[in-house]
């Protein structure tokens, strides 16, 4: 299984704090059956500049690589660089959007606002989806059901194949929560899943438990479909040599 949403790169956002913690998180992902992880550190236009962000991301990944022992290399997932791009009203016109895509692909993880979405927000994401070569992935779509965003704006993406939806593990790792979201899985609305892990203790990698729960409640076929969709997304991705 692929974990599409992680904050494992150290000290670049509110995720892992140290290289050791990053390595521990990678091992936790692997132990739970994740063969591949997307490192989707936050990119926020207000905080970051594209060139320094990309350089910083690479340097910090290099620090992980340098610290890994040969034994550890055998017990971590394959790594693909990505980015959780905070929505900005100008996002659809950034000429560097491709540099923030899941590396080697045209998929961009666009984090939607946590305040109620406006029509402009929806229009701008649609412009990326319909007028550019990029396919937006909306991370943790589950979260927006609790932000007073008009449900019609969220549902707009349920029937739009040009935009993919990712759900976080925390909403599907126990029996009660998963009942609520089961129809979204059964109807093929949720495309991929991720842990959105931030550390070894606070918001740790826990996608394994959710996959198990999904299998129990929605069936193996559903788990296989999620996995197939993920493999299709990363079929041209560039893996990091670790
Ligand atoms: Fe995240």
Describe the structure.
This protein is an alpha/beta fold and 242 residues long. The protein has a single domain (2-233), classed as Alpha-Beta Barrel (TIM Barrel). The protein has helices spanning 19-31, 50-67, 70-73, 119-131, 151-156, 175-186, 207-218, 220-233; strands at 2-6, 36-43, 78-86, 107-111, 135-138, 164-168, 192-194. The chain has a 7-stranded parallel sheet with strand order 1-2-3-4-5-6-7. Helix 1 (19-31) packs across helix 2, helix 6 packs across helix 7 and helix 7 crosses helix 8. The site of fe (ii) ion has 5 residues, from loops.
Topology record:
Layout: E1 2-6, H1 19-31, E2 36-43, H2 50-67, H3 70-73, E3 78-86, E4 107-111, H4 119-131, E5 135-138, H5 151-156, E6 164-168, H6 175-186, E7 192-194, H7 207-218, H8 220-233
Parallel strand pairs: 1-2, 2-3, 3-4, 4-5, 5-6, 6-7
Helix pairs in contact: 1-2, 6-7, 7-8
The structure holds fe (ii) ion.
